[in-house]
Structure formats: structure tokens, C-alpha cells
Amino acid sequence: MAGVSKEPGFLVTTLEKGVNWARTNSMWPASFGLACCAIEMMGTGAAHNDLARFGMEVFRASPRQADLMIVAGRVSQKMAPVLRQVYDQMAEPKWVISMGACASSGGMFNNYALVQGVDQVVPVDMYVPGCPPGPQSLMHGILSLQQQIMDGEIRRSTGVL
Amino acid sequence: MTDVHDTSDIDAGEDVLEEDAADGRDPENGQDAENGQDQANGEDTASVETERRHLHEVWVSGTEERFPFSAATNEGAQELLPREEDPALAIQAGVAVEDDYVTEPEVSDEERQIINMGPQHPSTHGVLRLQMELEGETIRRVKPIVGYLHTGMEKTAEVLNYAQGSTNVTRMDYLAPFHNELVYSLTVEQLLGIDVPERANAIRVLMTELNRVSSHLLWAATMGMDIGALSMMIYGWREREVCLDFFEKTTGLRMNHNYIRPGGVAADLPDGWEDDVDNLIDVVNEGVSEYEELLNENPIFLDRTMGVGVITPEECKQYGVTGPIARASGLAWDLRKAAPYSGIDQYEFDVPTGLHGDVHDRYLVRIAEIRESLRIVAQVKESMPRGDYRNPDPKVTPPPRKRIDESMEALIHHFKLFTEGIVVPPGTAYQSVEGPRGELGCYLVSKGGARPWRMHWRAPSFAAVQALPAMMTDSLVADVVAALASADPVLGDVDR
Description:
The complex is a heterodimer.
Chain A: H1 10-25, E1 29-33, H2 36-45, E2 68-72, H3 80-89, E3 95-99, H4 100-105, E4 126-128, H5 135-151
Parallel strand pairs in A: 1-2, 2-3, 3-4
Chain B: H1 10-23, H2 27-55, E1 57-59, E2 66-68, E3 112-117, E4 129-135, E5 138-145, H3 153-156, H4 162-169, H5 177-192, H6 198-226, H7 231-251, E6 260-261, E7 264-265, H8 273-295, H9 299-305, H10 313-319, H11 324-328, H12 335-338, H13 359-382, H14 401-406, H15 408-419, E8 427-435, E9 438-446, E10 454-458, H16 460-466, H17 468-472, H18 478-487, H19 491-495
Antiparallel strand pairs in B: 1-2, 3-4, 4-5, 6-7, 8-9, 9-10
């Protein structure tokens, strides 16, 4: 390899780019639909907006097969442990998108019933604003996450709050 | 002398003794005896109160018995009871399903198992959880568990004023936001005792009927996906997007519009709306014909839907089930005919009903309802009245921006409306409309002022979820998803 490049870490950084590229373009979301945002998430996956363009149309019912959890909707106190369990069941590497105002911050419901932001339960990589975010917003969030993965390192520890 | 027993202060007690002496009564005996007796009484009532609070009993109407109430939300309280002790078992006996499977009359306990479906399951339409007791492939008991999407909206409504309220309620049944806003606005208008202009009524009917179309289209999409007709997901959404585009053009949002408000609607229809509606009617009608072509004679679809998830008209009445489920079982009950609102009785339409009350009839009824709603929409388009789209009452409707620069009165009204809100006289009101899932009702209690004292909703999905055991008991596991999809519960509506 010495003849190829004098720079240190050439092999590792190239490998990292390759792995990141692969991860980016076949990210399968777990279908974690909760409320209104889930409908827009379905709309994003349907023909009109066609999430398949970004290699992400395969919404998995089982968290074991999923890389990305899109928390779409309001998370109640009763649902929070379930959400955490689904997250724990997902295999590494895994990412979380918090879709919509309720999942991100509790939204307009500042009361006894809702978790005020899903980042109290699971670590969130990307917040998508809106109530509910339209398909374009969600796709922008997904593309931003893909960019983040492309620019990041292979090794990362998740699941630590 | 009257408040003597409440003063526990010793210094005050001396004063009292002096007063007693002055009154000529014996300070020693009289006061001590009275005091002691009263203290004992106080202790008695207090202990009874605490005992009552610790008993956690709940009285079930229609019976003389009190059942222990394990109210905590831990999952332990939600286990299925032993068969002998389950009071719900007597009323959950559904219709016997005749199919090509054999059910053993005697099943050993080893073959009996309890399966948990949800709350995170792709075909529970949200976060419904079902506990099912199975004997082999046959379901013997179903227990729906709700509350995973409880958002506390009825409580939140008590801190929002009436003008802000429709922002809150539109997020309840998120597939029928216009219906939520309409019934809320109608209830507030009933409390205020005001009417809305003709044009506002027509716009309301137009938007709610289009909302019924979009809701049923989504139902067709998800129902198809749930029972294996995956391409329905693509087709249903294709037509729904046309509806959503029109909503977005009119209200600015694809969902959760906050468009119908107390006193009228938020904005007039956009320019060129007639062409959009014409186009929408054509596209949706064509699309629905395509669904019928795909599904009506599809043997797999027929096998999976006919005779599945049957509910009788009597059971519908017992469970309070309304809407397409009740109509599919033969009850011609539609609030648009029975208790017309917003002048919907001036349009011609039919109420489609089914015969068998099974999943297939619910499919037929909903498809027919899409066509009927489009009929109403076409009539509204033809007869749309001119005029204002909001009630001119300045205490309800904010003045136009231009008037604020010209008139002090308008400025004051604007300021009051956006700081205090709409002031509503004391009273109670209930109003219901025919939502896509059945009777959607809003009950408001006002003590006067700008905020409701209590709001409660009659959610059609809640009744539908309640009736799921009647549809599913004694059927096959594979039919659970079909029955659930045909009931079309929206968990935001169930849990609120």
C-alpha cells in the first residue's frame, strides 16, 4: 500500500467511506407510527412522494430488521416504556428520527399525559419540525440524517442517554 | 361561642373560658364534654373517609354489586381474568364462524394460550393492544387495551380558550380533522346562540364531505394492505393526495387544519376552487372504480372478507357502534338524515346499508359512501351561496385587518379577541355530527368566561374498539386483522 499513498490511514478512511455509503443508502425504518405524523409518514412512503428513491421504503414491522426508528407522533407516558423496548430490540447501528412537534418537545400538549420530548427516552439523531411535518419535511430530515452518517465515523456508541 | 371547637390554640382557649364564665355557664363540664364529643365525631368521619378512599370500589350501573377497582396503570392490572371470573365473557360471545376448520369441544389447558398483539404492531392502526386467548387457531376471548395514545386533550381544552380550542380538537381524530372542528364549532355556537352565514355552512359541508372521502380512501388503502392486497396502499394514497392537495390549497395544511372555527370558517375558498373540485370528483370516482375492479371479484379478497367479523344490529346498538359498521349490519342510521347539521339536509344523497354486517359489507358501504359524499360535494359546488363566510358578530369574529387602522372599536375588539378570547355564557351543550367513523359528539360545560369548564367527546372509534370482542370471538386468528381493519379505529380518537 505504501506505493499508493504516503498519507496515514488511507485504507481505514476509504473503508469508512464505503461502509458509510452502504449504511446510508439502505436504511430500513421501523414503522413506529403513533398519531397524525404516522399518516404523513405513510404518505411519504406512498407513490406520490416515493421514499423508495432514497432506499428507505421498506418499513419493517420487526425492530430486529430495522436500522432507523422514526418516532412519528405523540408519545404518552404509557407508551414510553414500549418505545424504549422497541429501540433496545433494534440491532446496532441504529438511528432515531423524532418526527413532529409532539415527539420532539411535547408540542402543544404540555400536560400530564405526554412525554415532553422523546429524547427523554431514546437518543435522537434528527428532529423534524412540523405539526405534522409534510412529506417534504420528513424527506429533508432523512436526507440530512444520511448526510450526517456519510460525514460521521463508523464507530459510534448509541443507546447511552 | 360558635367557633370554639375549631380553636386549638391554648391561649385562645383561655379567652373562651372567660367568655363562658361571663355567659354564666359552667366552664369545666360544659365545654369539655362538648369538645370531646365533637372530636370523636371528627375522627369517625375522617377514618370512614380514608377507609372509603382505600377501598377503591367502583359501582357498576345496573347491578347492586361493587367490584374491586384496580385502577393503577401497571400492566399487572390488565391480565386476563380466569374464565370463571370474567364477567365480560357472557356478553362477548360472538357469532359462530362456519369454516373448514374443526374446533374440538374439549381443549386441554396446554393448548390454550394467551397472545398479545400490539401496541406496536403494523396492523393495529396505531397503538391498540389486543389480548387474545387462543385455542389452537380459534380465538376464544379478546380484550382490547387502550390508552397508549392518551394525550389529555380534554384536559388541555380547559386551559385553551374557545378560539384556540379548534387547534386542539382537530388533532383528536387525525383522519377527520374537519369533522372534529365542525362539531366543536357547532357546540360553541350553540352555547353562544349564534348562527353562521349560508356560505359558511356550505363550505363546512363541502370540506367535511371531502374529508369523509379522504378518510375512506385511507381506510381502503390500509385495509387492502392489512389483508394482503398491497397495491391498494399505493392506489388509495394516490387519490387521497388529490384531496390533500385541495385541503392544502384551501387551508394551508394537509392535516390538522384548524379551518372551521366558531363563527364560520377561517378563510374563503381559493380562486378556481370549482375546477379543483371538478377534477377531484373525476379522479376519485375513477380511482374508486379501479378499486372495485381490483377487489370486487378477487377470490382471495372475498374469502378473507365475507362472513368475517360479523356483528349484528342488536350488538351494534348494545355497544353504541355507529357509522359504517352499524350501517353494514343493516341499521340505516346516519346523523346527516336523523339530525341534520349545517344545512346538509338540503342536498340529495342516499344512506348505503349492508345486509350481513361482515367485513365485506363494510367495504361495500364505505365505497358507496365515497360516491355519495362526492354527490353531495357536486351539489354544494353547484349551489354555493355568495356572501360572507363568517358571522359578523365582532365579539366572535375578529375584524378585517383594514378596519383596525380605521376604527378604534375594531382595534379594541381585535385586542380583546386575541387576548381574552370569545366569551361564552354559562351553560351546557351537546352536538354531534356524522363523522367518517360514526357519531362524533362534543359535550361542553361552560361556567361563563373564555374557557370551557369541561369538555368531553363521544368518540365513534371508542365504541368500535369496544365492539371488537363481539366481532372477533370464536373466529380465526387470521381474521383478527381483517376485522380490526374493517372497524377502522383511529387511536387518536379512542384515547384522545
